[in-house]
Amino acid sequence: MRTGRTAIAAAATVGMLVGAAMVSTSVVSNAVSPATLAFLRYLIGAAVLLLPLGPAVRTTFSVKDAIAIATLGVFQFAVLVLLLNHALLTVSATVCALVFATMPLVTMCLAVITGKEPCSVRGLVGVCSAVAGVAYLLLSPSASAAGVAHNGWGMVSLVSATIVGAVTSILYGPYLRRYPALATCRLAMVSAVVFLLGFCVFTSQPLLPSLNRLQWANVVFIGLSSGVGYFCWLWALGRLAASKVTAFQALGPVTAALIESLLSQRLAPMTVLVALAMVCAGLVMATRRPEAH
């Protein structure tokens, strides 16, 4: 019971860190290319994970499992982020956030279809409630003022990124039951960093951009949140169903809206408070264990 609650807390932490990182990303998005920002983000995140965070325990991966985990890392970070960046070139941020917030629902559907998880009406209703809270927030008049213009290829990239996030969350399960979460995190993220390094070199993107102190502070925060958040993500995936863990991604847009309200020194609008209530109610329903009879 205690482990389950800790896993839920870890998953919630990830959702909130994602929202905070969204705000920091918006601060530096005009000063650094998407590929360079992704490389720096996960370079710092990998450095955090490589710190001696406990007793030295040597983990030996089989060659087959090491290749699989490295591949999942590349897709979880590099491919997903690159798809999202491509989508943001032609699709509004409102639509991107709304579609990506459906990842918990996609994860649950895929998990049920593939037999990874049993069908749960309570869980489905909870996830739908959380997604509805995000939709309510993002489709409010203030959020949709920027418009929703997009083209076909941008939407294809966006939907593909959402599916990549859902599929990788499910596929991590067997490896997290065989290997420690920290060792798995390190292998996956370092693999993504190597991939992004090659991508930046191939596309002639700068590896060390010229930024001011505030921008560097935001980049460092994004990287730290990625390292800590990804460890919490995999740790929770090793103890909870993938659909429950990804459900907490719905906290991201709401957290971002709350932080932006604080930074602008204005009270959070009623739409944010209503959305937060809907998201929290949905998450409680989705993660609550059924009572024993």
Detailed description of the structure:
This protein has 293 residues and is mainly alpha-helical. Helix 2 (34-49) packs antiparallel against helix 9, helix 5 packs across helix 7 and helix 12 (251-263) runs antiparallel to helix 13. The protein has 13 helices and no strands. Helices cover 74% and strands 0% of the residues. The chain is globular. This is EamA domain-containing protein.
List the helices and strands and how they pair.
Elements lengths: L1 H27 L5 H16 L13 H26 L4 H8 L2 H11 L7 H18 L13 H20 L1 H6 L2 H22 L10 H25 L4 H6 L3 H13 L6 H18 L6
Q: What would the keywords be for this entry?
A:
293 residues; single chain; 74% helix; mainly alpha; 13 helices
Please state the average pLDDT score. 78
Distance between the amino and carboxyl termini: 17 Å
Q: What general outline do the C-alpha atoms trace?
A: globular
Low-pLDDT runs of 5+ residues are 145-150
Beta-strand portion reads under 5%
Helix/strand-derived category reads mainly alpha
Whole-angstrom Rg: 19 Å
Proportion of helical residues: over 70%
Number of helices: 13
Secondary-structure element sequence?
HHHHHHHHHHHHH
Largest pleated sheet: none
What is the β-strand count? 0
